[in-house]
Structures
1.
Amino acid sequence: MRSFGYASRYTNGNLALALAPGLTPLGVVASPEFFDGYVIYPQVVARGLLVLADVAASRYYNFVPESQRDPILTGQGDRLRAECFSVCNGVYARLDLLQNGLEGKIGYGTTNVDIGAEMRSVLSSVRKDEDLHIKMGDAGLAVDAGGSQARERPVKMPDRWVRALGNAAEMHRGMEPVFSLTGAQAQAFVAGLPPASGKLVAGWVTPARTGIKLLRQGAKDTVYIAGLHRLSALKRVMPHIKGVTFFQPTFAEAGTVMVVAELPACRITLSLTAEAWRGYSGEGALLSSLVYAQAQKDAARMKLSFDGIIRAMHMAQTWNMDTSRAEDALALLAVSGKLGYDATDTAYFHRELPEEPGRILKDNPRLLAAQKLTDDVTLVRENEWNVPSKGADYRVRLGDSDRYACSCTWYLRHGSNRGPCKHILAVQIKTGEF
């Protein structure tokens, strides 16, 4: 058990969230400080942080600007990461600051800060030729650019962000690159994006000499994007973009998409839900991983040390288990927000968040509902079960492709694109190792 070094404080209308000591490869650090140094590309980094601030302050569905600007900051020894969600929870954004763009020792730890008006002002004024000093740690985020300074204390993380982090990690794990734009072509694509407050523009996009072109139907090397305006924050870094890569899941509904912009010594990832009105916190992508007792045991064994790259094969070798078991355990660890997934590196990464007992059931009411149905599940015939619920009987079938299907209205509407329904979960619990 690790105790907090000091109490959370509420002063001047702001909550400063105390963080537990950080468990790093060097041992437990009471007051984690994960970076204190300069960046080699100051304007790029400053504008990159503002991209995240823009996303965290925007409600893209029925656009309304908000005051929330709270990125999660993590040091992982060889890189710094900043992450956030939009207010509507339908856009995930991440800025990866790589080691070759930083002058200073990178440590280990996670915190959550607000980028307020003063911080935005300092970052917005950073010029290409002036020094930018950044300090990150349990004290928050501090920047110094050309004599202008700003400091932000840690703040309380939005509760649904923790739930959304797990769903996003599982959805990102299935992402694969479809096509890339480079140089002027990539910059033209960003320049042509509609504003955040613009109308919903959706369709299949494919490379063109002038950036992209919008198609009515999908074809080879196309990606469906529901809401191009949700990528508009990239305009802040348009002059610095060297390339843009479009990702989509191998097996998923059209619309779930990731766009990764390459910048000098860093990259920005924007990931969109399949519809502008849908949020990551409600996707249910990890529900199946929560019902297996073996995954829970394996996850409890694994020790995380703020690694920037975590792969199932390596964890399987380290903890003497097969790769499929390691994958299930890592997926389960993502539920609590401890793991994110980087599709560019095809690997998980570790961030540390305060523990909350009972969070899994609290954040996944569908799982709680499934547990109440488990005792009434009966086997009708091979690979087919009856699940009574609210006065009706529902049939769950396991198909040849090892995929479950259910006769309920929820499944008929969503299929498996938003995780399993409660009836399928009940069957998985009944037939699993519990």
2.
Amino acid sequence: MRSCNKKSHTGIIHSIESFATHDGPGIRFLVFMQGCIARCLYCQNPDTWDLRAGFEMDAGEVFEKIKRCMPYIKASGGGLTVSGGEPLLQIDFLIQLFELCKKNDVHTVIDTSAFCNAPDRRLIDRLIGLTDLFILDIKASREALHKKITSRNLNEALEFLNILETKKKPYWLRYVLVPGLNDSQTDMHALNKILAGLDCCEKFEFLPYHTLGKHKWKHMNLKYPLEGVSPANTRHIESARGRMTAEKIT
């Protein structure tokens, strides 16, 4: 796996979808990057963790595939979304790919948890300038719980969020709601504190926890950490929204 600071035009890819509709505006060409340094308890794609797995493609090869899908991408107001794994682990590749997109007027989105082991800030700034929209996940609103859920520090995500705010870059914010784990009144109060005063957040949404990726853990001979935890339903989401309203910070 190449470091964030090493110049490279090659990316390590997990998989590609040519027709995605839930990963940004319009129809998206969706690239899943291989490699992640978090270990989220509810991860639906643990097969993306391994930094040595996946297959290599250079930016030009990926863009040639995007070009074949351009008619319906452009007609729908869509574009390219890069997800993972954690895409920010391969910033050099993303910069090269997004430069090609910008030259061809292709809308760009990065779906990230902002876990990148602190790469060169200049590279982050350059990538942000090439990215039209970020989709940022907040896994928990309290430091200790965030560390328990992800193995990473909450401050990593909050620092990246602050950079986006400073640069006035639009983003969507998402919070995976796990019943009994990160949906308490205390959690919602802390979440409201994070959300208070954000100017560039275009959309916030709860994502209901599900177990659709549980079979992958079993296939990889891994113990599923949330065994017995029920998926979140509409009632859980509405209840969390109600607690957020009750804790509204003005």
3.
Amino acid sequence: MKPPPFDYYAPGTLDEALTLLDELGEDAKPLAGGQSLVPLMNFRLAWPSALVDLNFVAGLDHIRRDGEELVFGATARQADAERSDDVRPGWPLLIEALRHVGHPATRSRGTVAGSLAHADPAAELPAVLIALRGEVVVASRRGSRRIAADDLFLGFLSTALEPGELITEVRIPAPPPGSGWAFVEHARRFGDFALAGVAVSIAPGGAGIALCGAAGRPLRAARAEQALEGGAAPDDVGRVAAEECEPQSDIHGDAAYRRDLVRVLTSRAVRTAQGRVAEAHG
């Protein structure tokens, strides 16, 4: 398969990239890892008039700690995040989820920010951002702003980014000491998109539960969070999550099957996270 014709730009600075995105209009797309965009173009499901390649812009590939936040630049690779000594000690939920993202070759090119910008409802990283209450920093020629995870994902492959805006950083707060976590998903084959998945974080200040493959967008299970914080058993938390998800039927499974997967996976993830809380407290 070949993509439709497009113009290609390789800016050397962030300012140049933002200027190009502004001048070329909403049909232009930024290119970081290309693991989602390029296949869509090859199948003629995406027809951007131009690609603005970010890989020649220095200073966008950082992975660092900023106080109690973990910060990823726009071109930080998923594989580098998986191996990072800055990520492993404080953000084990992210590490656990990254291992489910495609295959090692996919993660070697795919970026953390790119997965969030693509906003696939079955993707793992949007669920982690929601569960850990992270945010993205976006920039354009008009300035910069921050968008919380709960406000970022609007629908299928749709975000709150406006034309000309680019995710320049992903910021994820550190879970407090004594927290528990779990990421579980079910896919027909390892590396496939999940039929359903759940990210759970249990912290002294509250719980985070986010679902993937369970709605037309990455979804926070707010009622399930409240049930967990109120002392509900894992099986009951799973039932609440299944009630509030919005699965869709397709050739891989109908809505009822996906809803039951959400119930089982949420219950399993909550048990695992609670066990890790118990381990942290000795």
